[in-house]
Amino acid sequence: MQVAKIVVLSLGLLLGVAAWSQGTDKRVIAFAQDTMKNDFRKAQVNEVRDAVAKQTGLSFIYSDAQGQTSLLIRQIDQFIDQKVDVLVIGTNDERAVVPVVSKAYKAGVPVIILDRGIKGTDYTTFINSDNVQIGAMGAEFIAGKLKGKGLVLLFEGLKAADVTQLRSKGFLDEMAKHPDIKVIKRTGNYLRKDAVLEMEKLLKQGIRVDAIFSESDSMLSGARMALEDNKLDPRSIISVGCDFTSEARDAIRAGTQTASILFPLGGFKTVEIAQKLLAKESVPKHVINPVKLVTRDNVEQVAPIF
Question: What is the pLDDT of residues 223-246, one digit of tens each?
Answer without folding.
Answer: 999 999 999 999 999 999 999 999
